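It is worth pausing here to work through a concrete case rather than discussing structure prediction in the abstract. The textbook approach is simple: state the sequence, then state the predicted structure, then interpret. We follow exactly that order.
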Amino acid sequence: LTSISVENSKGVTAKIAGINESSSDFSTPMIYTREFSEKSFGNTKFHDTLEIVVKKDKITQLRNGEAPVEIPEDGYVITARGANAYNLKTIFKKGDKIKLNIQTNMLHTMN
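Step two, the predicted structure:
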């Protein structure tokens, strides 16, 4: 079981549904890295997509409904829509330091 979240410098976190996974509507926040694509989805699927560009653990851009952007080689783009996009905009601002947390719990059963 894997839990993914991003955290601002005040310790406020937001859950991330997945990394480099396809999403039908971006209603849950997803992270995309350069391994997924050279550019983000931008407004190619939906006109109201929020994208948070992170480079070297710092938010460089908050983009709403804009054209695709280059995904940093040393960073990632957080993508969301709807209520989750609104929540992300209240937690994160341009210039903020951001921490990516990935926690994996291994379930082991004995036979």
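Step three, interpretation. The beta strands are 2-8, 13-16, 18-19, 30-32, 50-55, 58-64, 75-80, 98-104. The first strand starts at residue 2 and ends at 8.
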